[in-house]
Every structure is written in C-alpha cells, then in structure tokens.
Amino acid sequence: MAIRVVNHAAAYLGIAQANLVNLLNPEAIILGGSIPSMCSTYVQTATKVMKQRSMMALSAGIAVDTAVLSEIGGALGAINFALDRHFSFTMIQ
C-alpha cells in the first residue's frame, strides 16, 4: 500500500515535471525536500513519467537530481539573486 502511494505521488510529480519541460525547456530539474532525498524510487518514478509525457527532443538531455543543500538551498538562492541584482563586478573593481 505504501509503495503504491509513493508511486502515485511520484507520477503526479512526473506530470508536473513534464509540463515544466514542455513549457520552459530547462537544462536540469533539482528536487528538494525530504522525500526526494530519502526515496530514490520516488525520483526514479517521477523521472520516468516525465520522460514519457514530455516531448522527447526536450527531455532527452535533462538531468533530474536531488538537492544537495537541503534546508538552506532556498536561502542561498535568494542571497545569490539579491547580489546579482544589486551588485556587479564592475562596482567592486
């Protein structure tokens, strides 16, 4: 029963990933949170569904990985965005 629930949830994630691929054509998809980092079956199932439901030419080269920075990844991304937005290397030199 639990495996069926995980596969069902992963299938919905795969559908969302396929929509993302078809609309934005990203180079990589990084999955954050506790479930993808602890359950490789979840990530594999979602990736399989994504490849089945997205355009083959778009999804062929996409890497699907789990986040390395876990809890602080979002904060680091926000800091990076703010620094890129308000500072430039020409200002520092």
Describe this protein's structure.
It is a single chain. With 93 residues, the chain is mainly alpha-helical. It has a single domain, classed as 2-Layer Sandwich (Nucleotidyltransferase, domain 5). The protein has 6 helices and 2 strands, in the order αβαααβαα. Strands 1-2 form a two-stranded parallel sheet. α1 (2-24) packs across α3. The longest helix is centred in the N-terminal third of the chain and has 23 residues, at 2-24. The chain is flat. It starts with a helix and ends with a helix. The model has no long low-confidence stretch (mean pLDDT 88). It comes from Paenibacillus solisilvae. InterPro entries: ATPase_NBD, ROK. This is ROK family protein.
Describe the secondary-structure layout:
Layout: H1 2-24, E1 28-31, H2 34-38, H3 40-53, H4 56-59, E2 63-66, H5 73-86, H6 89-92
Parallel strand pairs: 1-2
Helix pairs in contact: 1-3
Keywords:
two-stranded parallel sheet, mainly alpha, 2 strands, 9% strand, ROK, Nucleotidyltransferase, domain 5, ROK family protein
- Assembly level: single chain
The CATH architecture would be 2-Layer Sandwich
Order of helices and strands: HEHHHEHH
The overall number of domains is 1
What is the CATH C level class, in words? Alpha Beta
Please name the fourth-level CATH homologous superfamily: ATPase, nucleotide binding domain
Strand percentage, roughly? Answer: 5-15%
* Discrete helix count: 6
Radius of gyration: 16 Å
**How many E strands?**
2
Distance between the termini: 60 Å
- Main-sheet strand order equals 1-2
Protein name: ROK family protein
Family: Belongs to the ROK (NagC/XylR) family.
Organism: Paenibacillus solisilvae
